[in-house]
Amino acid sequence: MKMKNKLFTSILLGLFLTTSSFAQITQTTRQDALVLYHNGKYKESIAVCEEEIHENPNRIESYVVMCWALVKNKQYAEAEERANQGLKISPYDLRLIEILGEAKYYLGKNSGAMEQFQRYVAGAPDSGARVGVSYYYMGEIFIRQARYQHADIALSSAVKKEPLLDSWWVRLGYAREMAGNYKESMVAYDEALKLNSASVDAYRGRERVSAKLQ
Question: Model-level pTM?
């Protein structure tokens, strides 16, 4: 009888340890989704998030990381779909609002993208992580629409938030150049060249504007 009890106890202990180990492995896998994303392993990150959502359809963090990874992996239609699904669960999640704007931007849905970026900027604190990025995309949309004065305003806000990105200064210079604001355009191109003296776009832009100012 004692042998049977010991055997039964051993089996239960084995099952418990197996279950615990499985839970730990699953938890580790779940925690890895964001790490995978930061390491540029976007497909793997997406797969982990898919598993998490399958187990818990209301897990909003999985939707956020998945959408980030989908956009980085250039799966813009899927990112748009997943962001919309996430926003049904958490309608005011600013991370999903911003990434939905990016997905729509790359899909060429300018009005829809602009709406999401404006929502993000209006709702995020001034120090929000994606405020500068949102202004940048808004500026690019205005350039697409040939609304260069508006692009100037948006891109000026973008470089104010993140002044060390030479490519953003180039785009600001271009917006000002197209608006006919040549002196201000020169300032922006000069800032780009200070940050990156090898910037061909900044150099060529500066040459064009310099010729028009003579």
Answer: 0.84
